[in-house]
């Protein structure tokens, strides 16, 4: 026994399984017409494991069905937006819910508030959103090819549609780490703001959208997203059909009344 110390204790080997963390993996709060969906596993760098994927898929469904929510925001706690899949994973397990697909399938506008690293499947989550606003410390990267994997989560399809083929290949093949300022120059993010201003900038954009007609936002999103898969003539026809459909709604009549009465419209989503 060492003088002045108690009896020595054998150190326990580290557990192979991470301890369960308290609270939901993804938090949902609805305020002022905005559904705030927050990745809440900062200790694990918000990695897309089974728990987080299942929670995010459930939260997306809840936000989609929540009538008071007209816009959704995907944010994250901690220094990283999401570091992607767990280190040992070689791809999304077939039994895990596809959180990226759940996010991309929402009909409401979705804003990504990105700080820190968005890597691999974490980058895929950001790409599945409609608008991305990033803090200047944000970094987007695809380390998969360097590690002998193919990027997943739809990255190889969404990224070239946003930044072009050459830039997408630079990120996919070379693993280029893209900072927020350069990402804004590429059109990948709508704005790069100082970290202390990220929450305020995202709130301003989200509340601005929430004040608009929810049906008009939904139809506009549908027309733009489906344009990627339709020939030009069919896309224009879809736009015209959605325009005619919008004219039949109560929101459209309310918009006209509000304009004539010089007041803010009170949209009901009907």
Q: How would you portray this structure in words?
A:
- It is a single chain.
- By secondary structure, the chain is of the alpha/beta class.
- The protein has 2 domains: 26-210, 2-enoyl-CoA Hydratase, Chain A, domain 1 (Alpha-Beta Complex), CATH 3.90.226; 214-261, Orthogonal Bundle (Lyase 2-enoyl-coa Hydratase, Chain  A, domain 2).
- It contains 10 helices and 9 strands.
- Helix 4 (155-163) packs across helix 5 (165-174) and helix 8 (214-227) packs antiparallel against helix 9 (232-247).
- The chain is globular.
- The relative contact order is 0.10.
Name of the CATH class of the largest domain: Alpha Beta
- CA-atom Rg in angstroms: 22 Å
The average pLDDT is 85
Share of helical residues: 40-55%
The proportion of strand residues reads 5-15%
Summarize the structure.
The chain has 270 residues and is an alpha/beta fold. It has two domains: 26-210, 2-enoyl-CoA Hydratase, Chain A, domain 1; 214-261, Lyase 2-enoyl-coa Hydratase, Chain  A, domain 2 (Orthogonal Bundle).
What are the SSEs and their pairings?
Elements: E1 26-31, E2 34-39, H1 50-65, E3 71-76, H2 99-104, E4 110-114, E5 117-119, H3 121-127, E6 131-135, E7 139-141, H4 155-163, H5 165-174, E8 178-179, H6 180-186, E9 191-193, H7 198-210, H8 214-227, H9 232-247, H10 250-261
Parallel strand pairs: 2-3, 3-4, 4-6, 5-7, 6-9
Antiparallel strand pairs: 1-2, 7-8
Key phrases:
single chain; alpha/beta; 3-stranded mixed β-sheet; Lyase 2-enoyl-coa Hydratase, Chain  A, domain 2; 270 residues
């Amino acid at each position: 026994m060492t003088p002045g110390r108690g009896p020595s204790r054998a150190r326990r080997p580290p557990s192979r399984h991470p301890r369960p963390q308290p609270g939901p993996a993804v938090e949902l709060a609805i305020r002022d017409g905005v559904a705030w969906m927050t990745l809440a596993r900062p200790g694990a760098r918000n990695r897309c494991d089974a728990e987080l994927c299942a929670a995010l898929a459930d939260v997306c469904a809840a936000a989609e069905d929540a009538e008071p929510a007209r816009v959704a925001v995907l944010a994250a706690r901690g220094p990283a937006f999401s570091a992607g899949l767990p280190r040992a994973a070689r791809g999304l397990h077939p039994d895990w819910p596809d959180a990226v697909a759940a996010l991309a399938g929402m009909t409401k506008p979705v804003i990504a508030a990105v700080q820190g690293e968005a890597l691999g499947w974490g980058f895929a989550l950001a790409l599945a959103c409609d608008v991305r606003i990033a803090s200047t410390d944000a970094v987007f990267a695809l380390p998969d090819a360097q590690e002998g994997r193919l990027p997943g989560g739809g990255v190889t399809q969404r990224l070239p549609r946003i930044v072009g083929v050459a830039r997408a290949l630079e990120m996919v093949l070379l693993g280029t780490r893209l900072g927020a300022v350069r990402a804004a120059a590429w059109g990948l993010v709508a704005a790069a703001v100082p970290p202390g201003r990220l929450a305020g900038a995202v709130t301003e954009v989200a509340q601005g959208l929430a004040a608009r007609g929810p049906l008009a936002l939904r139809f506009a999103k549908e027309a733009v997203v489906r344009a990627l898969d339709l020939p030009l003539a069919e896309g224009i026809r879809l736009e015209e059909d959605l325009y005619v459909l919008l004219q039949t709604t109560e929101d459209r009549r309310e918009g006209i009344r509000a304009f004539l009465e010089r007041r803010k419209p009170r949209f009901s989503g009907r």
